[in-house]
Amino acid sequence: MATTASILPLTLRDLTFAAGGREIIQGVSARIEAGPATILLGANGAGKSVLMRLMHGLLAPSAGEVSWNAQAPARARRGQAMVFQRPVMLRRSALANIVYALELAHVPAAEREAQAMAALREVGLADIAHRPARVLSGGEQQRLALARAWALHPEVLFLDEPTANLDPGATREIENVIKAFDASGTKIVMSTHNLGQARRLGDEVLFIHQGRLVEQAPVERFFKQPASAEAATFVKGELPWV
Amino acid sequence: MNTLGEALHGALGLMASGDATLGGIVALSLAVSLSAVLLATLLGLPLGAAIAVGRFRGRRALIVLLNALMGLPPVVVGLLVYLLLSRAGPLGELGLLFTPPAMVIAQTVLVLPIIAALCRQSVEDAWVEYEEQLRSLGADGMRAALTLVWDIRFSLVTAVLAGLGRALAEVGAVIIVGGNIDGVTRVMTTTIALETSKGDLPLALSLGFILISLVILLNAAAHLIKEAAQRRYG
Lengths: 242, 234
Known about the structure:
The complex is a heterodimer.
Chain A: E1 10-19, E2 22-32, E3 38-41, H1 48-56, E4 63-67, H2 73-78, E5 80-83, H3 94-104, H4 109-122, H5 138-151, E6 156-160, H6 168-183, E7 187-192, H7 195-201, E8 204-209, E9 212-218, H8 219-224, H9 229-235
Parallel strand pairs in A: 3-7, 3-8, 5-6, 6-7
Antiparallel strand pairs in A: 1-2, 1-4, 8-9
Helix pairs in contact in A: 3-4, 3-5, 4-5, 5-6
Chain B: H1 2-17, H2 20-53, H3 59-69, H4 74-85, H5 100-137, H6 141-151, H7 153-169, H8 172-178, H9 188-198, H10 201-233
Helix pairs in contact in B: 1-10, 2-5, 2-6, 2-7, 3-5, 4-5, 4-8, 5-6, 5-7, 5-8, 7-10, 9-10
């Protein structure tokens, strides 16, 4: 059956994105396979977030191509979910926020609430299901964003610096949920500038520097013997800003 | 000063006595303006939201036009609706001219651009925050627009109130299409205009009091609801 075909691998061909006369992403080509958790690593402003938005289809490339497994093009859209740096919640309860996402995903009405509750339990938010989402703490809102993604059962989950605004405790909770996603077989594609987080959660690293993909390597190798001078500087903690 | 004093005295007397004519005029005013605002809200919010979220040719020109229409002169709206509804006009067969429904139509036309333009601005501001998340979830176009309208519903109260203020306060449109017929199409503003020119200051003044009090009361109620809701939903 066509629906069992994976939407992966994701292939980027000479991907370029320009805005305001500046090329933010320049000629990125890569193949992202099912399986390993992929980390987009790079300094602030390197172009990680833009690259992720190109992958997820929120931005259209100026040149080049983003393509999902050709066997399942129609499913590609529905097979993805994204969690943003700053979670955007609707002015309704935590539960209703997930139910809304399930409605958009054409889940039958009768099943939505149960599925939403299950997702909330997964991230430990079942007891605040009926609280308005917008008055939750930053960490809770981000966990709710993860629950919303969880409920959609995506094949690929994009995470754009999901813990950048959170304290260490909340960060740990978010990382645990991301690990659970990974363990359940969801393909993780996460951007971060945090080396420790990249090591904790990643299996493979795409190192982005000034809009270019400098290196794609397994985490172990990337940190032990980075192949490029830029990556070596970055790993040593000397942020190459410009 | 003496005239004002006498008028005040008379006005208080009229209001205290629960004068039936006065009551009828106030009731008709509220019925006409609230109906017009309800219609304009039902049409204006989706319209404003669609323009906010949509990307189409001529969008900027439409926004400029919509903003300009907020300042539509009521007498001009009255005149246009009069021409539409007059016996020789395209809608003349409906026989609506000089009836309350004609006044509702005129005020709806007057208020619609206000509600739509203010809604467009609010939704567009919210769209900046929500766009990526909603598109990621698969909500595009009208679906996203209506989600936004519902989500910022408490801010939109202000747009609706602006429309209501306009409807309750205008004279020009209702006097042309309503005709200010005693007991049929006479509302607060048209009565104030008429009675002042006739010299019946107590009636005019008491209507003025009631009009201003009503507007303040409605705004206060809406403001309290908005505040409570924002505390609750963030």
